Amino acid sequence: MHEDSLEHALIQRYFSDCGARRSDVCLGVGDDGAIVRMPAGKDLVTVVDTLVAGVHFDPRAPAGTVGHKALAVNLSDLAAMGAEPAWATLALSLPEIDEVWVAGFARGLDALANAHDVALVGGDTTRGPLTVTIQVQALLPQGQGLMRSGARPGDRLYVTGTPGDAALGLAIEQGESGVPDVHRDYLLQRLRQPEPRLAAGQRLLGLASAAIDISDGLLTDLGHLCRASRVGARLDVDALPRSPALDSVVDADRARSLALGGGDDYELLVALPEAREVDALAALAGLDCHFTRIGCLVEAPGVLCLDASGETVSVAAGGYRHFGGEAE
C-alpha cells in the first residue's frame, strides 16, 4: 500500500472518531482543514506543545499515557488562563507504523479529550522520530482571562495539588529503587498522567489576579510570574503541601527540593488578592485538588524562601529548561 494510503488508513482507524462530539464542529477530521463555529461574546485562546520521545517522555512508557500527557500539558496551560478547551489538532511523527502503539496512544488521548469535551478536528501523521504535537483552541469570556502579568504586591500565593510527585516519579522511571508498589504506581501516574486543573482555573476567573501552570518547577515558574508582573515573592517553604507518597518515600529535605525544583507537576500557581481570598476558597470547595497558601507577593524583586520561623532558606532553583538542562 502507498504511504499516503497507509497514513489515511491510520487516521481513519484511530483518529476520525477521537475526542468529544461538539455541535460547534462543522467539519472535522478527514478534509483539508477543519471548520468550527465561534460563539458570540467569546475570545479564542490557542496553545501548542510538542513532546519528543527520549526528551519529554520515556519511549517505554505505556502508549496510552503518552496520549494522555500530550493533551494534558496543553489543557494545563489553558487551566492557568481560566479557559474552556474546545478543539484540538494532532501532528504525530512515527519512525514506523506500530498499530498496537497507535491504538493505545489514541485510547489515552480519546479518554482525556472526552473527559474535558475536546473535539479532535484535524492533524497530520508523518514518518520520523517519535514526536507528538498537539494544538488546542479554547474559549474565554470576552475581555477576561488569567495572565502571568496581573499579580500585584500584597497578593497571596496559592498552589493546587502536591508539587514534587512528578519529579519523584521521574526518578523512579529512571531507575530509583526501593519504592513500595502502592507509592510507585501513584508517583508514576502523577508523572505520566497529570490531571489538568481546568475546573479550578475556570472558577478562579474574576477572583485571581494571575496564574501560571507548574511545568518547569515551582521556583522557576514563580520566577516567570514575578518577572511578568514586576513583583517579588516571599515563599514559605514549610507550607508546601506534600502527598503521603512523597512523605513516605523521601526525607523532608529531599521532599522540599523536589517540590520546589522538580518539573512536570502541571499544578496551578495562583496570585490571589487578599479581598478575594475567602471567595476563591469557597469557589474551589468541593474540587479534589487541594488549594494551599504558600506565600505572598511583594514589591521588591526576587524570590525569597523562608522557613516557618522566618529564617531564609537557601534553595537551588532546579527546574527544566528546553535548551540547556536544568534551570538556573
Q: What would you say this structure looks like, in words?
A:
It is a single chain. The chain has 328 residues and is an alpha+beta fold. The protein has 2 domains: 3-141, 60s Ribosomal Protein L30, Chain: A (2-Layer Sandwich), CATH 3.30.1330; 148-326, Alpha-Beta Complex (Phosphoribosyl-aminoimidazole Synthetase, Chain A, domain 2). The chain contains 10 helices and 14 strands. The strands form 4 sheets. Strands 8-10-7-11-9-12 form a 6-stranded mixed β-sheet, with helices on both faces. A hairpin with a 3-residue loop joins strand 13 and strand 14. Helix 2 (63-81) runs parallel beside helix 3 (99-115) and helix 4 crosses helix 5 (181-192). The radius of gyration is 20 Å and the shape is globular. The chain starts with a helix and ends with a strand.
In brief, what are we looking at here?
The chain has 328 residues and is of the alpha+beta class. It has ten helices and 14 strands. It has two domains: 3-141, PurM-like, N-terminal domain (60s Ribosomal Protein L30, Chain: A, 2-Layer Sandwich), CATH 3.30.1330.10; 148-326, PurM-like C-terminal domain (Phosphoribosyl-aminoimidazole Synthetase, Chain A, domain 2, Alpha-Beta Complex), CATH 3.90.650.10.
